Amino acid sequence: MTPSEAHAQILEELARLYPDARPALHYQNPYQLLVAVILSAQCTDVKVNMVTPALFAAYPEPAALAAAAPEAVEPYIKTCGLYHNKAKNLVLTARALCERFGGEVPADHDALESLPGVGRKTANVVMSCAFGADAIAVDTHVFRVTNRLGLADASDVVKTEEQLMQNIPKDQWSRAHHWLIFHGRQVCAARKPACERCTLCSWCEYANGNPKNKK
Fold first, then answer.
1. In whole angstroms, how far apart are CA 66 and each of 60, 96, 157, 183?
2. What is the rounded CA–CA span in Å between residue 105 and residue 112?
3. pLDDT of residue 103
4. Cα(70)–Cα(85) distance, rounded to whole angstroms?
5. Which residue in the list 108, 139, 171, 192 is annotated as catalytic?
6. Global pTM value
7. To 10 degrees, the CA torsion angle through 104, 98, 114, 162?
8. 3-class DSSP state of 81
9. Is 212 a catalytic residue?
């Protein structure tokens, strides 16, 4: 079996396993998604979803958040971790949205990455989930699972994303992102993956003892 054939079968099985995979963060518009993804850095989606209702009630649009002091935002997001920096970035990002983009979240990857606290992963998530663009956001789950499965063989997230863009058809990028996250959360855990019940084991380099993927 060629690598491309194996990749196709892995994706087919992931699609079968997680047909309803979708973002776990709760949001109603691009602004709310952008804020939620910024908050999700080194924090679980569950915790983010617990704080955003009150945060969005207090700051329902970028203009309201732009007018706030970071110290006023901090109590709403304190349980998300790194809340000093996150509050500062949220306020600065809201101000940038108002000053440079008419109070709207731009549907442009480079413009998103220019915002404070927004990196490539965050920009990819917003482009994919808010604007329907084809994008692969490599978080810790996607990085781990794809390198174990052999969909990628990279030492960092940037190289992993580049390889996934080559190994996954473009029209599957966004869906594959969610399939891989679900598999990472439900089966392929970081410390103790449930290989005994994983239906992807026949293709998995980690499960088949490849030392370079024992990370």
1. 11, 8, 31, 37
2. 8
3. 97
4. 9
5. 139
6. 0.89
7. -10
8. coil
9. no
Active site residue 45: no
Residue written as token pair 């781990």: 144
Tell me which of 47, 86, 121, 159 is the catalytic residue: 121
Q: Which of 177, 188, 179, 207 is nearest to 144 (CA)?
A: 188
Which residue intervals of the chain are DSSP H helices?
Answer: 3-17, 30-39, 45-58, 62-66, 70-77, 83-100, 109-113, 120-131, 140-149, 157-167, 173-186
pLDDT digits (tens, 9 = 90+) for 22-78: 999 999 999 999 999 999 998 999 999 999 999 999 999 999 999 999 999 999 999
Rounded distance between C-alpha atoms, residue 159 and residue 148, angstroms: 15
Rounded to the nearest angstrom, the gap between the alpha carbon of residue 63 and the centroid of all alpha carbons in its chain is: 25
